[in-house]
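Re: your question from the hallway

Yes, I did run it. Sequences:
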Amino acid sequence: VTSSPDFWVRIETPQGARHAHLKGDDVVPIEGSIFEEWRPAGDPLPLKEARLLAPVIPPTFYACGINYKGHWQTAAAEFGLDPDKTWPRTPEIGYRSQGAIIGPGQAIVLPSDVPENVQVEAELAVVIGRRASKVRAEDALDHVFGYTICNDVSARGWQFTDRTFWRSKNADTFKPLGPWIRRGVDLDRLVTRVSVNGELRESFPTARMIFSVAEWIEAITRYATLVPGDVIIMGTDGHCPAIVAGDVVSITIDGIGTLENPVLQESTS
Amino acid sequence: VTSSPDFWVRIETPQGARHAHLKGDDVVPIEGSIFEEWRPAGDPLPLKEARLLAPVIPPTFYACGINYKGHWQTAAAEFGLDPDKTWPRTPEIGYRSQGAIIGPGQAIVLPSDVPENVQVEAELAVVIGRRASKVRAEDALDHVFGYTICNDVSARGWQFTDRTFWRSKNADTFKPLGPWIRRGVDLDRLVTRVSVNGELRESFPTARMIFSVAEWIEAITRYATLVPGDVIIMGTDGHCPAIVAGDVVSITIDGIGTLENPVLQESTS
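Structure:
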């Protein structure tokens, strides 16, 4: 595992989706499982010619929800709550839909009837590499394969009226994931930055979470087994920029990469 | 598609999980996709010697929540609501965790610290066979491959205190699914029956839903594309029997089959 390459992408090939690792300016396709055994398969191609897909499709797609106090300042106000008294005291995980996932560069398509105020939530995404059941926090990071980035696109108009997050957070294209999985990063040094149309709109220290990655893994695996490929998105901080059709939104986490997606409006034809 | 066998199972083989169809008292393993192209592969074996797995692992696992007025009579009382004024007026889908799925005959394992009152929710499970986006209700059933049964095991003590359904409904083993997928059933004639230790505890007409299967598919696919293998569990009616370690719970839907699972207590070693 220690000899595994640092960057893993998933690309479209004539034979279907394939994992590949970065080597210089090229990507090297592989056969097998990135989490178990693999071997190079097929010719390397230049990274800039590869069509990148979401780097993993999780069996179960977990979401931490509120996990930064700064974001809760804003969210609590929406609910009419006192943020200092109501931030989460226990880690209770939620879910997102695999069907909503898109890759880097693919378009976020706003449904024709979506209410105003669709927002970006810039989130660290944890990719599980080893089965994890009843893991203690001090051992939890041994079960992490690497990290990527998720834009937890949220239609606030629906989020606050619907009983579930089905269309507010899980409409088609609402879960951009990528651009790749980075291994061997030190979370404590990372900063998350959100830009819309090239203008920096928010930044925050990635690791300033209410519960850490390790604490979430301990909590989840008390009751639910995590398996290779499962993804946990870690919540966002600060203010969430709104996006409209025509925008390009990018999320950068230092040391991981940049996830960039254009925003389109669904045609009503 | 019309020539596809009526009953599909998924079985454990030395080569891993395989789909197979029923033929008399035998199961016939196949290669390929039950939703697209497949061919027989390997020798038939007697059904009673096959180890059945959950018949499908959905890419996205949808749950309808409250979808029968009888069940809402009970649930509303728990929330202190007037059931006649508060039953769902719009179909808003939720999610379950793939990681919680087990097959027929496998044990539901109660976590060592689960509060009292773990209940059975007997549910029809719809298996999608064809990609479905913006489908009208009148065309929706063309996208259904077949039906199976789900036990949406629910730890009420956690359900009413946690912010999400993570451990109340998605703890390991809490989503028995099976025993097989049945094609070509007429939902209007079906009855769902729940037994604990061989004693009938509840029964209800399967189709007496607030929103029909076709209406749910129309609602979901307005915003989210369903893909082959996706599963939608349709909610339950009436009273939900409680289960404790040592019980055997079975759910029968006429024309589909019987999903039976023993209940164990997690060891605290």
